User: Fold this.
Amino acid sequence: MKGNNLGRMHNDGIIYGLNALHEIPSPQDIPSTVESLVREFSEKYDVPFEPLNLPEFPENINDLNLDEWVDQTSFSTEFKNLAKGTLDVLERELSIVESFQEFDRLLGQAESTLNESEFYVFDDHIYVAKRSMEFWKAEVDETQVWQLHASFLDGRSARGPTNWWKVLGCDCVGGFFGGPDGYIGVLLIFIIMQY
Assistant:
């Protein structure tokens, strides 16, 4: 899946998952609950569902190390280094314009170093990173757009401050663990585990 379709599906899937949850599942039920939501969304969106092959989430979500997740993939060393470069851009909390310039630079490097199949995955990864930044930073009347769809969080407090670069990082590495559905699933699990 390429370009606008993947970005739109990703954002629609996040909104669908946030709207469909009515309560926070118990920690052991979070992955299966999210996988069910992603499957429902895939059927609704008429996209073949790919079972999620998720890496282990730490008990304390703040201990999540996305570089270690990238290392768990079967991609080439060059791919892993470029993916970690994307995470570095997110962690630096640059402006959207500066981040997009860095993403485009990484994409140029990927085009000249990766084989065709890895480049295809990396291109999707960068596209989701860009659309994710736009989605999570969007506001309506000073309210984050994503919060408008997360009624199950009303009255709940996060376990700590939201680590936004990890939100974005989960978004853009999720596809390494389940294709288009992985982008949605990994992120929903990360958001739920913060509450």
Observations:
- The CA atoms of residues 14 and 79 lie 26 Å apart.
- The first helix runs from residue 3 to 20.
- The first strand starts at residue 139 and ends at 140.
- The chain has one domain: 3-193.
